[in-house]
Fold each of these.
Amino acid sequence: MQVPAPFEYRRASSVDEALTLLESLGEEARVIAGGHSLLPMMKLRLARPEYLIDINDLDDLDYLRVEGDELRVGALTRHRALLESELVGRYFPIVQDAERVIADPPVRNRGTIGGSLCQADPSEDLSAVCTALRAVAVVRGRAGVRAVPMAEFYRGPYETAVGAAEMLVEIRLLILPEAGSAYEKVERKAGDWAVAAAGVALALREGRIDRAGIGLAALGGSTVSMVRAEEALTGRQPTEETFAEAGRITAEDCDPVTDGRGTAAYKRHLAGELTVRALRRAAERAGAASRTARAA
Ligand SMILES: Cc1cc2nc3c(=O)[nH]c(=O)nc-3n(C[C@H](O)[C@H](O)[C@H](O)COP(=O)(O)OP(=O)(O)OC[C@H]3O[C@@H](n4cnc5c(N)ncnc54)[C@H](O)[C@@H]3O)c2cc1C
């Protein structure tokens, strides 16, 4: 039987209390949200926190709302809420593409977006999605709040910009007109971690790509955007030729490793192909969004 090392358990009743506990208990304290990444690591003794601070009572971190031109997502929002949200489906279909292939209902009922991003597993689907969407992570400590763009959020595998006495409290997604997004994943069996996955977000203007974001999962040491491929898309028309070039650059620039899920060469091939498929679908959705906007 896999049993975690001994730990003390605290249940926070407010964000302030959780932050005070994190500060006073020091580096050996860890926040627990859904527990679907942390508990397996503790059982395997890959993580041995001395204190667990349970944040599941912090209902004020569980929300999805539009403010100005942003969708704001509380860090404690569960996978299931993202999958079922009409707002998320309307503005960011990439999130629901990904949620449909993340694990299974028991994991989706408890796992949170905050836990997914803070786990910083290079295979984490929502990390790739938020990278493609150029999300902004709102991080809170006792000294105040800071906004961290996804490009600066990951410091390496399993390492983020969130400090020991800080918490991720919100994820902000910019709502753009004429925008479309999509996520493509290859997995060995339903609900498995990705062999490889690519997420794409496009915004069009006057028939050309005005802004492009690409985020990959399981194709490098951490989730990073594909800057060169994004630049190759920007200003171009959304054609098959443009997509093929972005796919070729993505395959060149990703950094997969050979493991039980496949060889590096196979994963590199998938990186290119999945990027092209996601681009096609994102462009179709962006076109549909602009037609709807014109008809309104
Ligand atoms: C069987 C199984 C299959 C899975 N398959 C997939 C899959 O296909 N794709 C995929 O992407 N994921 C998959 N997952 C992971 C799942 O999505 C987890 O829910 C998610 O990775 C972590 O979310 P959590 O809320 O459970 O985080 P937890 O396990 O509670 O925490 C994870 C880490 O984040 C930290 N943390 C949590 N919340 C915060 C916060 N607000 N601020 C600061 N730090 C925080 C914790 O301290 C911990 O270090 C799978 C998990 C399981 C068990």
Note: The first helix runs from residue 15 to 25.
Amino acid sequence: MRQPLSPPVDAAWHWMKPDLQIVDFWLSRVNRLWSTHEPRARLVGRHIEADGITTLTLKPNRHFKGFKAGQHINVSVEIDGVRHTRSYSASDRPQRDRLIRITVKAIGSGKVSGHLQHLRLGSVLPIGQAFGTFELPDAEGQCLLLAAGTGITPMLSLLKAQAALAFPRPITLAYWARTRREWVQADVLHAWSKLHANFKLRLIATGESKAEDNELTGRINPTHLQDCLPDGERAHALVCGSNDFVSAARALIEPTALSVQAESFTPPVRDAQGVVEAGTVKVTLLRSGKTVEVPRGQALLDALEAQGVSPAYGCRMGICNTCACGKAEGSSRDLRNQHIDEEPNHALRLCISAAHSDLALEL
Ligand code: FES
């Protein structure tokens, strides 16, 4: 935090502060990575990992404070004059060179993923500080990592950090992809499993009809878990994948796991717990002076976007805080636990909150 300055200097600071944007503008004319305060990164490498999956290497400026294995980083791109922000897990461990690697899958309708995959080397992107607490637990015991699709990315980060320490604790990775061509860094994973007795690997292709040596097929099921944890062994489970995968994995592993951490890269399906919210409410956007009508019970981020309002967002899962904005009036519902909040809120996360009554938002 900035130390208090002497009154005249402090007054000068406050007078100058609004001009930092202008300073940034001129700095970025000299070097687009330069900023007085904003973390930015230059795209310095691109590597095709598998079908439709690319790893991008980003070199951050000095405002980026680094990341821990398993954390997410928000990355912004400008497309047709509009800034879009998405959260990506780092797919590498933190290293001295401070480089960030993110692994991006092209999704049919995904504007940002497609744009990132074809971005020119040397391009500069605004990034956020790393966030998230997806990590191997300190408690003793083996770990079981269950990853599906691009859910492998935080697992790769965690595993690379463990590989750098020669796998000091027993870890099993079970990794589902639709076809063999979609496994990311399977050669690295195989090499670790041959080199380190503490690392076991199970590759599972859901869309292949026949399993090859040491492979399994089909969607996650009790036989897969039995194969990973024979003889009733227990483990700390970390799960990452689509919402359906995470729900299925949780249901199977939770009864016996030592602990479970799960992250989904699709927005969580909200359990309405019998709550029926009907009708619409008015949402007043105090900064833009607009008023829009949105359905009660729908995530405010989705509802506002449907009305042509574009709040900033990253994860759409309530993790990154990018969508947080002030609520001046009205009551909102937390879609994760159905809790109603009637008080003004300084940081209402639009992606996991719905309007319960008319609202006034600092947007
Ligand atoms: S978009 Fe990340 S918390 Fe809402």
Note: The longest helix spans residues 152-163.
Amino acid sequence: MRLSCPFCGTRDRREFTYGGAALARPDGAEWGADWDAYLHLRDNPAGVSVEYWVHAMGCGAWLRVTRDTVTHAVQNVVVASGEGAA
Ligand SMILES: [Zn+2]
């Protein structure tokens, strides 16, 4: 699999580190079922998934990657700065 970093260009997947599913953070600071699910429960989708990746062996940018987990076809890569990644 290859990912296209917006700053460095297309690179091998080994330059990147997986940062988890791109989930929406719950509102509020109080602990509840929504925070428990956000922190501990994960889907394991067979198909399109939106994930965070960091270009660890490159520029260090956090990216939001949309890809198919079955075919590894990458559909979209955008900078994730300001999204509260990882
Ligand atoms: Zn990069």
Note: The mean pLDDT is 91.
Amino acid sequence: MFTVQIVDGQWKDAVFACDGQESLLDAARKQGIKISFGCRGGGCGMCKVKVQAGRFERGVSSKAVLPDEERVLNYTLACKTYPRSNLCVSMEAGDT
Ligand code: FES
């Protein structure tokens, strides 16, 4: 089990658990932290987050919504991201 700390925005300093099998998006929402999402399939980009620290694995996602120049800066899609260590992330709050 890994811990994920949100470092800015409405949910600044919130911490939630993620076991590495479920996505960041699902783990956050299960624990009451609402972050934006649309498709849950890596195609809309609404769940884009930036990992400030830690290791993670990306599932398949569209290069149209997550181009290479953003990938190298550690942007990722929460619906397709699985922690491989504790993480610190920047996340936009959502109400969906
Ligand atoms: S919810 Fe659409 S890309 Fe993650």
Note: The chain is about 10% helix and 30% strand.
